[in-house]
Prior knowledge:
Strand content: over 45%
Radius of gyration: 12 Å
Structural class: mainly beta
Distance between the termini: 15 Å
Strand order of the largest sheet: 4-3-2-1-5
Number of strands: 5
Amino acid sequence: MHSHKVRQLMPGKYQFRPNPFEPWVNVRVYQEHEEDPKSLKASWDGKAIDVEKIAQHGEWQPLFDD
């Protein structure tokens, strides 16, 4: 799988790794509040974190459904 920079995260499924020494994890990005399109959360392993806190860190790859 080729790595590429994701300029802006949108709701959907991604693979994320914080640094080259960590394994990839599957992450779901979702909009927390319908009325606020910037209220994005990233969820994996039962954790949810504000996307703004991690969006610029690590590598992101979009996952596409077949």
